[in-house]
Design brief:
The chain is an alpha/beta fold. It has 14 helices and ten strands. The chain folds into two domains: about 240 residues, Malonyl-Coenzyme A Acyl Carrier Protein, domain 2, CATH 3.40.366; about 60 residues, Alpha-Beta Plaits, CATH 3.30.70.250. Helix content is about 50%, strand content about 15%. The strands form two sheets. A six-stranded mixed beta sheet has the order 8-7-2-1-9-10, sandwiched between helices. It has a four-stranded antiparallel beta sheet with strand order 4-5-3-6.
C-alpha cells in the first residue's frame, strides 16, 4: 500500500472533449450513471446523450461542452471512488484548467453538482454571446518562451490567455491581430501554431468583458461552502480557502489568462508528488510532464484507467 503521498486532483477544461466520453463509465458504474442522470434532470434535456453520441457539432457548442466535460469529470471521480471501494488517496490540493475549475469546486465540496452544472452552462452561454459581440479566437503557440510572447502580444495587440507549459502558450484576440501574432511568432522561431478548436471567441481575455455583468449576477445566485480542500485558482495560481475567494475567481476568470504552469508549480512547491487527472483525455498530464518530468501522473478518464489507480494503491507500480 502506498502511504504518505501528497496527491493533487486536476480537472481538464473543454478542450479535452470527445464524442463518446463517459459512455463506458455510464454502462459499468452506478455512481457514474447517477451523475449523468442528475445532470440530465438538472438541465431538463439529455446532455449525456450528446456526450455519448454527439454529433461533434452539438458537443462543441460552448453552451454544451463546458457542462459536458464537468459531468464526465465528476462521473470519472465517482466511478474511481466506487471501484476503489473508497480507498482513493484524499487530495491535498485540487485544481482545474479553465472550465475544469468547476469540477474542482465540486470535488472540494464548494458547490453541489447540480448548482455547478447550472452555473457553468450559463457561463458558456454568456461567453458565447460575448464572442458574438466581440468576435475573436484563440491560438496555441509552441516553442516560444513567455518573455518573447509578451513582446509579441504587445506588438500584435493580443493577450496571453493560457500558459500551459514552458513551451505551450495560448493567445486570444480578434482574428486580424491573431494573424499578426502568428507571423511574429514564426519570425521568432515558433515551429507549430494551432487554433484552439471549438473556441467561439477570445476566451480568457478582455474581449470577454461583455459577459462580466451576467457572470456577476449568476455567480451570486448560488450557495457555496468553504473548500474542504484548497482549490488552486487559475487567475492567481494560489490556493483558495474561502467562499469570497472562490466567487471572485469565478467572475474574474473569464477575462484573465489561465496560469496553469504556475498553478502546477505552486502544487509542486507545496509537496505534491502525484497528480490524478480526472476527466476525459490526458492533456493536463502532458502539460504536467513538460513542467515537471519527475512528477508521477495517473489518468482517471474511463473504466480501464481506474484500474491503474487500484494497482498503484496496492503497490503494483
Amino acid at each position: 500500500m502506498v502511504e504518505d503521498v501528497k496527491v493533487a486532483y486536476v480537472f481538464p477544461g473543454e478542450e479535452s472533449k470527445q464524442v463518446g466520453m463517459g459512455l463506458d463509465l455510464y454502462v459499468h458504474y452506478n455512481s457514474a450513471r447517477e451523475v449523468f442522470e442528475e445532470v440530465d434532470s438538472t438541465l431538463g434535456f439529455p446532455l449525456s446523450r450528446i456526450c455519448f453520441e454527439g454529433p461533434e457539432e452539438d458537443l462543441s457548442q460552448t453552451i454544451n461542452v463546458q457542462a459536458a466535460v464537468l459531468a464526465v469529470s465528476i462521473a470519472c471521480l465517482r466511478a474511481a471512488d466506487e471501484i476503489s471501494e473508497g480507498t482513493l488517496p484524499a487530495p491535498t490540493l485540487v485544481a482545474g484548467h479553465g472550465s475544469g475549475e468547476y469540477a474542482a469546486l465540486v470535488a472540494a465540496g464548494v458547490m453541489k453538482l447540480s448548482d455547478a452544472v447550472k452555473l457553468i452552462r450559463e457561463r458558456g452561454r454568456l461567453m458565447n454571446e460575448a464572442g458574438r459581440r466581440k468576435p475573436g479566437g484563440m491560438l496555441t503557440i509552441m516553442d516560444i518562451d513567455k518573455d518573447t510572447m509578451d513582446a509579441i502580444c504587445l506588438t500584435a495587440g493580443v493577450e496571453i490567455s493560457s500558459i500551459n507549459a514552458p513551451d505551450n502558450i495560448v493567445v486570444s484576440g480578434d482574428n486580424d491581430k491573431l494573424g499578426k501574432a502568428r507571423r511574429l511568432a514564426q519570425v521568432k522561431g515558433a515551429r507549430r501554431m494551432v487554433p484552439v478548436r471549438g473556441a467561439t471567441g477570445a476566451f480568457y481575455s478582455s474581449l470577454m468583458e461583455p459577459a462580466l455583468e451576467g457572470m456577476i449576477n449568476t455567480v451570486n445566485q448560488f450557495p457555496y461552502e468553504t473548500p474542504r480542500v484548497p482549490v488552486v485558482a487559475n487567475v492567481t495560481a494560489q490556493p483558495m480557502n474561502t467562499v469570497e475567494a472562490v466567487k471572485e475567481e469565478l467572475i474574474s476568470q473569464i477575462i484573465h489568462g489561465i496560469k496553469w504552469q504556475q498553478s502546477v508549480e505552486t502544487m509542486l512547491a507545496r509537496g505534491i508528488t502525484t497528480f490524478f487527472e480526472v476527466g476525459p483525455g490526458d492533456m493536463l498530464t502532458k502539460y504536467i510532464k513538460r513542467i515537471s518530468p519527475g512528477a508521477l501522473t495517473f489518468n482517471i478518464s474511463n473504466a480501464q484507467t481506474t484500474s491503474e489507480i487500484i494497482r498503484w494503491r496496492k503497490g503494483g507500480r
